[in-house]
Write a structure and sequence with these properties.
29% of the residues lie in helices and 22% in strands. The protein is α/β, with parallel strands linked by helices. It folds into three domains: 13-100, 3-Layer(aba) Sandwich (Rossmann fold), CATH 3.40.50.720; 110-315, UDP-N-acetylmuramoyl-L-alanine:D-glutamate ligase (3-Layer(aba) Sandwich); 324-458, Mur ligase, C-terminal domain (Protein-Tyrosine Phosphatase, Chain A). Strands 7-8-6-9-10-11-12-13-14 form a nine-stranded mixed β-sheet. Strands 15-16-20-17-18-19 form a six-stranded mixed β-sheet, with helices on both faces. A five-stranded parallel β-sheet has the order 3-2-1-4-5. Strand 12 (256-260) and strand 13 form a beta hairpin. Helix 5 (126-139) packs across helix 9 and helix 14 packs across helix 15.
């Protein structure tokens, strides 16, 4: 049974929605159901919006386009902020000065949830973890929905999941900035590494934003923490919730998940259970092993047994644009890790391969310390093919590794194929955002795959030198 309109705290209010991306459009639909009077603002003009956004006027939503004018706050009782819009803009500053609540879409949607929420945040691995959790819960017989920052807004599914189901939500630091009562039953923090420093003034403020996932937990809830990550581990002491931890080291885990003897183990109340051997698991790479451990903890917190976890963990193949194997041509493997949008994700991508790598990297810098990877790049990378705005910064940071520049993904792939030798891997792991050349990381990954498939089909394969050249 859905919540009565009158019982929602936002029912009937005058609401300003800031940003008309996926979450903004979805929360519009929810708020309309609850008789809210809606105005939506976006910096884009009408011609730049989706048809769905333009049609909001036909549903009684007032549109204010081309900027965020502070006069839009007149008579407003609530502001709903899209995650891509920073709280530092003048409109939001003025709303806060005027004591108008500024909330995220996940905060609005959470109020309508009947099912328990399992929320996952972290710099890297969120989408992989929530997708695997969804499969584990579904395999165990739960009606499970996976939503949030992964692409499907929480508000689009929250009313459809019954109380006996479970909602798995990927949450970003941007979304967590604007919560008040968001209260997951299980809150998972995978890792915290340098990212989004183009938005935050330093690691402390970024860490604080991530830590907000725990802000409303009680002793009957569970906090899942990575004790291999010093920034995450440091958050454990003040938490009110029960804690499960995960680590590659058994000694760091009192209750939780760890790796021992080439297998994933679960430890609960002094009892240990082997869940799967590493060799049996399809998902590869040390970062994915850490994701698996986190999912074991979150599943156990929801009452899933080690035996119930086994099959979905062994069979899960991962997500598109995350170490996605595309093709092998003349003994050269092509791997798409376009979702490696920061330095740490790039590091874990390189650590996933023992054979030489021809690395395609670059894009829009988010304040990453590329020089921290110099030794790893020099050890693992045969040659670099660099694209985008950060190309020169990467070339300087990784001095000692031969580097080439390309103006397009097609040129980069062709160049990498000419450089690569049999048994090499051509790896797209940009270490940067995509917005200088592409719509998003998916667009970038698809461009890589398209360029690789053109090689498969022979359109440029005849340009590759022979192995003896």
């Amino acid at each position: 049974m859905k919540k009565e309109k009158s019982s929602a705290s936002f029912a009937g209010k005058k609401v300003l929605i800031v940003g008309l991306g996926r979450s903004g459009l979805s929360v519009c639909e929810i708020l309309r159901k609850y008789d809210c009077q809606l105005t939506a603002t976006d910096t884009r003009e009408s011609s730049e919006l989706s048809q769905e956004a333009r049609s909001l006027t036909e549903q009684g939503v007032k549109l204010a386009l081309g900027g965020h004018d502070t006069t839009l706050l007149k008579d407003k009782e609530l502001v709903v902020l899209s995650p891509g819009v920073p709280r530092s803009i003048e409109l939001i500053r003025e709303a806060l000065r005027s004591e108008i609540p500024v909330l995220s879409e996940i905060e609005i949607a959470y109020e309508l949830a009947r099912a328990p929420v399992v929320a996952v945040t972290g710099t890297n691995g969120k989408s992989t973890a929530v997708t695997l959790l969804g499969k584990i819960f579904a395999d165990a017989g739960f009606e499970a929905a996976v939503a949030g920052n992964i692409g499907l807004p929480l508000s689009a599914v929250v009313e459809d999941v019954p109380s006996e189901g479970v909602i798995v939500v990927e949450v970003s630091s941007f979304q967590l900035e604007s919560i008040e009562t968001f209260h997951p039953k299980v809150a998972v923090l995978l890792n915290i590494t340098r990212d989004h420093l183009d938005r935050y003034d330093g690691m402390e403020s970024y860490t604080q934003a991530k830590a907000r996932i725990f802000s409303n937990l009680t002793p009957s809830d569970f906090a899942i923490l990575n004790t291999d990550d010093p920034l995450v581990a440091a958050l454990a002491a003040p938490l009110a919730a029960s804690q499960l931890t995960f680590s590659f080291s058994e000694r760091k885990v009192e209750n939780g998940a760890f790796v021992r003897g080439g297998a994933f183990w679960l430890k609960m109340s002094g009892r240990e259970f082997e869940v799967a051997k590493e060799a049996e698991v399809t998902l590869k790479g040390p970062h994915n092993s850490s994701n698996i451990l986190a999912c074991m903890c979150a599943s156990a917190a929801m009452g899933i047994t080690a035996k119930q976890m086994e099959h979905p963990i062994k069979k899960f193949k991962g997500l598109e644009h995350r170490l996605e194997e595309i093709a092998e041509i003349d003994g050269v493997s092509f791997v798409n890790d376009s979702k490696a949008t920061n330095v740490d994700a790039l590091k874990y991508a390189l650590l996933s391969f023992s054979n030489p790598v021809v690395l395609l990297a670059g894009g829009r810098d988010k304040g990453g310390d590329f020089s921290s990877l110099r030794q790893l790049v020099n050890e693992r990378v045969r040659e670099l093919v660099l694209i985008g705005e950060a190309a020169e910064k990467m070339r300087v940071a990784w001095a000692g590794t031969p580097a080439h520049s390309a103006d397009s993904m097609e040129e980069a792939v062709e160049m990498a194929f000419k450089i690569a030798r049999p048994h090499d891997t051509v790896l797209l792991a940009p270490g940067c955002a995509s917005f200088d050349m592409f719509k998003d990381f998916e667009d970038r990954g698809n461009a890589f795959k398209s360029a690789v498939l053109s090689l498969v089909h022979g359109s440029t394969a005849d340009t590759r030198p022979s192995a003896g050249d």
